[in-house]
Amino acid sequence: MTLNAVGGVSWKCSVHVGGKKTRTLRTGVLRQCQDDARELCASLLKKLPLTEHERLLTSETQQRGPNSSPPTLSDDFSFYSMDIDSMIPPPGEEGFSVSHAGDEVTIYQELEELTTSTANRQRLDTRDRSGRIALLASDWASQYEVLTDALLNYMHNPLEPLEPPSSVNETNQFTIEVVDIFGSSPIRLTVAITIRTLDVYRQSHRVTPRFSIHAEAKMLCFLHGVYYRRHLAEQLRISYDVYLQLHRRIDHRLDKVLGHDSDNWRMLNSCPAFQYKLTDEPPLEFSILCACDGNNSAKLVDPAIRGGQERLDTRIGTSSIWLNESYVDAFKDEVRSARARQARDQCPARDPDDPWVDEPDSVDSAELRTVCVDRWRNAAPESQKKMFAIFKKSGIFITVCRHGFLLTICDMVRSGELMKYPIASVKKLMDVFGSNILYGYDIKCAFEKILLRSTLGDSAKRLNVQGVVPTFHGHAHNCLCQLQHHSKHKLGAGLEDFETCERVFSESNALASEIRNATEFHRHQALDEHFHFADTDRYAALSDFIFNNYVQALTSISTTTTFLANFHASNPTLDTDFDGDLEDEHLFLQRLATKQDESSVEIDYVKALNEYEEAQLAYEQARIQFGQLDLRPNYSPKDAGNVRRRHTHAATKRDQKVDVVVDYERQMALDTRWGPDHPEHVKAQSRITNHLYHKAVDDVERLVVMRLLELTKLQMSGLGYKLRTQISTALKSRATAIRNALTRYNKYASQLNPPRPPLQWEQIVDYSFLAEFDLLRKTGTEIQTKRWANPSYRHASTQHLAHQRAKEEIRRLNVEVGRLCTKIRDDALDYPRAIAQLELDNPPLAAHLQRRWQWLRSANGQHLWRIDQILRLPGYSGPMSPGTHEGRQCEVTSALEGAQHGLADEADEGEGDEDALSRQLQDVHTYMEGLDHHRVDLELAE
Fold first, then answer.
1. Which among 192, 198, 616, 814 could bridge 878 via Cys, Cβ 3.0 to 4.6 Å?
2. Hey, what's the torsion of the CAs at 886, 889, 895, 897, to 10 degrees?
């Protein structure tokens, strides 16, 4: 019989049917005959009584014999198909199987399942893969401690073979081929990734965030000659997740040993330039300068938008520096509370800096909007305001110090940049750093009002928490707002522009394409890895930051001093009170802002008269052409029809305007119509001209704002060629529109009394602050007498402010130089001592700390070289040697006292060996001297 024989008959078997004629039956025919026979047998069996059915089964079992094999589904039991529910026993046998004492019904049901034909039945699988990731994470979690020890031992001694744990028996051991591409499973391993491959990818992804896990998998496939498939990247991602988790556990062990595992330790120790405070250092106006802002590039698409079922992932990819959603949501009602408190206090209804709402559908919809905010928000597309429904996380909100180190970070959840995010960030800063905090925020003018009216208002005043508007974002704020909130007017701000968040986002935006469609865990993990490395990178560039700012401040002092000296020499009789003039300008603009622009019926009447005069003039022109129609027989019928139509439309429009004028005259009870020389007409016309002039200024300003934003976009990385071409084309058309707006402006400016000087294209191009447009709007005669309204005097005032801020920057940089130099000295003491102690208790962990100290020592060598350059700058006025860190003086003093007592005892005993502190200090001097070769190499590189 062949392999595919059916029912004992081969494929090519000849069966004689019906006498001498021979027919060849194929496999399909035989199978159909078997199915028909099964159905016939099943129908006959259903008609048998229950006792006869049992007797038939018993007889067939006896015929098969005790040693015969049990029947299969394809042989005997497949013929028997019983329906227990519909089977009716014969009279007298109703109680045969209903006693339930032996659970006979269950046996018959199982027998029916065995005897039912399964030829065309498919198994229904109700399982899904929603718990696959959770199960995978659970399997890995049980092995993390053992794997962390193994990884530490491997990094400590890579050449020493690792022995399997004692808990693993021989039945669970397996053989595995190690290559550089395929991922692994926590239970059934076939292939694995080398640790060196994961190390290389981690550093590559750090310096190039756009280098995704899929790109790494494709690269490895090409190197090993393997066709790329998507599941390979998924396996690589699983291994990379485990690799990062092991490194986080190693860092956690090391932080626990070093005492770095306390609450908010990272916030308090990330930036030594402003956190490593020294004793007896000169006081600063603000202890911390920071910036906060939101970014909507780090979005996460809601899994419900995508097809399929979301896989549950309980892993956490955030570190201690993240603010969780519950912490942020505690401030979600602060806006409503502030508005209600304002209503109870009966504040004025009109406030040009009222709070604003980022999204119309947000929970903060009780907030109004302000002109300063609208100047930025109007440039955004309308679709952006309605797209948050498809995103589970609409971005991130961060706080960074002025050197770029991350202080706080939180998710923006299904919303725009609501007020609860900056309020929660400021609350965290107050809890950790205490008093004298100066923050920079794009809409500080609106945010400060909410903050002071919130539950944090009293604490913010008591702790001296103040804010400023960043330098570049000051372009979008009016003149009064800049005088109150701009960083150049803030005492103690120095030369800091508070635009650090924009520079941070320019780097983190490279992750957007990778994390947008990732899981929530992988999004958090990628962002946390990026910012952790960014902090490390910024520490390496910290001395460069201080050096560049010092040079900038010295240059600013030199140039402003020269300019102011020349200004005073050219204006010897001018009383230059720049600070007093700034206060006067602030009071003047504040007084103008409180004036109500009331509309009167007289203005509406004069507008109606102007429109009637224009309609009358158009009617006279149309009437003249209509009267000449008969004198020009060469007009075509189409031209003649156009002339008659214009005449009719002009007459109709004139009659409508006359009716409006007559209606106003009836309301005002006028006997005679106002002529052009009527005093009330002249007064109203002056107000109308001012309104048209202001509108022309607004048009010019709007076009210049759009031009500045588009010029900024041209400098952004990641823009394609087509988008750059479109922006360039838009700029060309924008230039034409600006010229037309200038023409309208000059027209209405000449009609003012007194007339304003015309604007030229060159002046508009050079405008760096849009606040200059606010001065153009002031058309009263009083402003013409103000010294601060004079362009040359305003420029001198700006130079005076820059001079003051540069001096403040020098004072702050002197403090930062001392802190950084002291931190380098203390690291040279602390790290070798900690490594020596760990070598006795945990050599693998000590080796890991040694690698960290090796990198830090190299970075400190760069810092010492830069500090040496700073000390040699002409005009440097800071410390020349390291100081003493706060909280460390007692430790040093007690060590010196102990050393003195020890030397006294040793002198009595005739022993004069150096104590441990002296040896440590000698090691520091040796370390400092050993960095000379780094300085030489860097000088040669320069």
1. 814
2. -160
Q: Which amino acid is at 887?
A: G
Query: What is the pLDDT of the chain when averaged over all its residues?
Result: 75
Tell me the mean pLDDT in the region 271-288: 92
How far, in Å, CA of 371 to CA of 353, rounded?
A: 8
- Cα–Cα distance, 370 to 445 (Å, whole number): 9
How far, in Å, CA of 824 to CA of 815, rounded? 15
Task: Provide the 3-class DSSP secondary structure of residue 212.
Answer: coil
Give the least confident one: 109-113, 577-581, 795-799. 109-113
How big is the chain, counted in residues? 942
Q: How far is Cα 436 from Cα 493, in angstroms, rounded to an integer? A: 12
Label the pairing between strands 395-401 and 288-295: antiparallel
Q: Look up residue 915 and give its two tokens.
A: 């104590």
pLDDT at res. 182: 35
Using CA atoms, how far residue 375 sits from 295, 506, 700, in Å, is 18, 22, 13
For residue 516, what are its two tokens? 């947008």
Q: In a 3-state reduction of DSSP, which class is residue 440?
A: strand
* Residue 502 structure tokens: 């924009």
* C-beta neighbour count of 893 within 10 angstroms: 11
Backbone φ and ψ for 328, nearest 5 degrees, come out as -70, -40
Question: Which one, of 801, 774, 790, lies nearest residue 579 by Cα?
Answer: 801
CA distance linking residue 225 with residue 247, whole number of Å: 30
- Residue 50 has a pLDDT of 63
Q: How far is CA 332 from the centre of its chain?
A: 19
* Residue 736: CB atoms within 10 Å: 10
- Exposure string of 742-781, with b = 16+ CB inside 10 Å and e = fewer, is bebbbebbeeeeeebeebeeeebeebebbbbbbbbbbbee
The identity of residue 480, as a single letter, is: L
**Span 377-403, mean pLDDT?**
71
Cβ neighbours for 886, distance < 8 A, ≥ 6 positions apart: 277, 278, 279
Residue type, 391: F
pLDDT in tens, 904-940: 443 344 444 445 545 544 554 555 555 444 443 444 3
- The string of pLDDT tens digits covering residues 770-792 is 445 554 555 554 565 677 777 78
What six digits make up the tokens of 663?
Answer: 């209606």
pLDDT tens, 427-445? Answer: 999 999 999 999 999 888 8
Count of other CB atoms within 10 angstroms of residue 535: 18
Instruction: For residue range 215-261, list pLDDT tens digits in order.
Output: 999 998 898 888 998 888 888 998 899 999 999 999 999 999 888 98
Closest CA to 820 of 271, 268, 270, 272: 272
Amino acid sitting at position 24: T
